[in-house]
Specification:
The structure is a single chain. The protein is an alpha/beta fold. Helices cover 40% and strands 21% of the residues. The protein has two domains: 163 residues, Spore Coat Polysaccharide Biosynthesis Protein SpsA, Chain A, CATH 3.90.550; 59 residues, no CATH class. The chain contains eleven helices and nine strands. The longest helix has 20 residues. The mean pLDDT is 90.
Length: 282
């Protein structure tokens, strides 16, 4: 495909943040460093009370492609993402969180080119590099690449990293964006991917394009338990849309039980080691 046609596609990058002033600059710099330059960055501040607005204002002075929006009150991630979709002018949407970075400078170019050349694809992601607090790499992983591979696994496991994806805006708006109900809080991305797969195909590029930090420490939060329970509801909701339902539901209940046992255990488990084990085996 002609390079000029590729470069003509405007990509709207949605970056939600809440009190992210201490980490958001690196995320924005990784966007500015992209070889593909036809983008707009929509920073949607979910009612921060730190100096996020000041930090972004300074960045906007140097790059007018960066746009800042602020919710008057904290509305939550789902409504914040949907505000970004509402403000987006691009045909393609990319996502990044305020504590992640794009480490492949050609990420946007590769994804735009891929979507342009594969019109039946509605969602494309990439692999990930996981680092610790000192920015030392812990491990990296790729996700299933083809539509067939993803479709066979997606009921049992979210096959996309949110900060890696690019998708077609019109396809997502056809589902009114991210679901804003309590049932999908913290799994709003997974729910959206499952919806998109009913109208188009999936893909993941075999590149390590995103870096995120895994904070070391003991697992003490029960948020994961709630997320796993919501995953099970999604599996049941979409059981007629994707293959391998029984394997997915058994796997999900097993994951829920194992995680529950870990939370109750007096032994302190390494978060990073558990994440690595989960990504490679679950």
């Amino acid at each position: 495909m002609d390079k000029d046609i590729i470069m003509d596609k405007l990509v709207s990058i949605i970056l939600p943040t809440y009190n992210g002033s201490g980490r958001i600059v690196d995320a924005v710099k990784s966007i500015i460093s992209q070889s593909y330059d036809n983008w707009e960055l929509l920073v949607v501040d979910d009612g921060s009370i730190d100096n996020t607005e000041f930090v972004i204002d300074n960045l906007v002075k140097d790059d007018k492609r960066i746009k800042y929006f602020k919710n008057k009150i904290n509305l939550g991630i789902q409504k914040t993402l949907n505000r970004g979709l509402k403000e987006a002018k691009g045909e393609y949407i990319a996502r990044i969180d305020d504590d992640d970075e794009w480490v492949d400078k050609d990420k946007l170019h590769k994804q735009v080119e891929f979507l342009n050349n594969n019109l039946d694809i509605v969602l494309v992601g990439t692999g990930v590099v996981v680092v610790n607090d000192n920015n030392n790499e812990l491990f990296r992983y790729l996700l299933p690449g083809s539509d067939r591979e993803i479709r066979n696994k997606i009921l049992g496991k979210n096959c996309f990293v949110h900060s890696s994806v690019m998708f077609k805006k019109d396809a997502v708006l056809g589902f009114n964006g991210y679901d804003e109900s309590k049932d999908t809080r913290h799994v709003e991305d997974y729910d959206l991917w499952l919806k998109l797969g009913t109208i188009g195909k999936f893909a993941n590029l075999p590149i390590y394009a995103v870096k995120f930090t895994s904070r070391e420490g003991s697992i003490s939060s029960t948020n994961k338990i709630d997320q796993f329970k919501k995953d099970i509801k999604l599996i049941k909701n979409y059981k007629n849309k994707y293959p391998n339902y029984f394997g997915a539901i058994i796997r999900s209940y097993a994951r829920l039980v194992v995680y529950g046992l870990i939370l109750k255990s007096p032994i302190k488990f390494s978060l990073n080691k558990l994440i690595k084990f989960y990504k490679k085996n679950w």
